[in-house]
Design goal:
This protein is of the alpha+beta class and 188 residues long. The protein has two domains: 89 residues, Gyrase A, domain 2 (2-Layer Sandwich); 79 residues, Heterotetrameric sarcosine oxidase (Alpha-Beta Plaits, 2-Layer Sandwich). The protein is built from four helices and eleven strands, in the order βββαβββαββαβββα. The strands form two sheets. Strands 1-2-8-11-10-9 form a six-stranded antiparallel beta sheet, covered by helices on one side. The chain has a five-stranded antiparallel beta sheet with strand order 4-5-6-3-7, covered by helices on one side. Helix 3 packs across helix 4. The radius of gyration is 18 Å and the shape is globular.
């Protein structure tokens, strides 16, 4: 009888999608981990101290993300934020929990979201078709929860014409299609 190997191997939701449309790029960022941090009642100062001592991060305001040591903190609610960082092994929650200890409650969200990095000269025009927010006014690091087409999303302005888009993994194909289509419309 042959030895059976039941090892599970993670695969990118979109197969590692990378699309060039004119001068623009859409890249699936499957190298990023996402861990949410819920702040306990009255625990704002403890979480702020843990983030500062762990990575030098500040707790971001609701419409701005903060970055330190390749870790981005995005405020997702009054008592919640999500940390986005390069991490390819399945221990992202433990990595965060080791730094913040008992200051906050952590949940690995990596498999819950699909992350696209978009860039190029037509990016703002493509986003105007997709998103009801005035993304042209986003400062570097600006972030918001929104709707793109009919799907819930988060958007983060990385720099210039570079943005991160996050949406539910359950609609990853539809989300990618909507982003691609928007670029195709604006590039003619």
């Amino acid at each position: 009888m042959a030895d059976l190997d039941f090892t599970l191997t993670a695969t990118p939701l979109l197969g590692g999608a990378k699309h060039q449309i004119g001068e623009n790029q859409i890249v699936e960022r499957d190298d990023l981990a996402l861990v949410s941090v819920a702040i306990p009642l009255g625990g704002d100062a403890a979480v702020a101290k843990a983030l500062k001592s762990g990575w030098g991060l500040t707790v971001p305001e609701p419409t701005v993300s903060s970055v330190a040591q390749d870790i981005r903190a995005i405020r997702t609610g009054p008592d919640q934020l999500i940390l986005v960082f390069p991490h390819t092994t399945p221990d992202a929650r433990a990595f965060v929990q080791a730094k913040i200890g008992e200051a906050g409650y952590t949940t690995d969200q990596t498999d819950v979201w699909v992350v696209l990095e978009i860039s190029g000269s037509d990016t703002l025009a493509a986003l105007e078709r997709l998103c009801p927010l005035d993304v042209a006014r986003f400062a570097k690091g600006g972030s918001a929860r929104t709707v793109m087409e009919h799907m819930g999303a988060m958007i983060v302005h990385l720099s210039g014409d570079r943005f991160l888009l996050l949406s539910a993994s359950s609609s990853a194909q539809s989300f990618l299609h909507a982003v691609e289509l928007s670029y195709r419309y604006v590039t003619g």
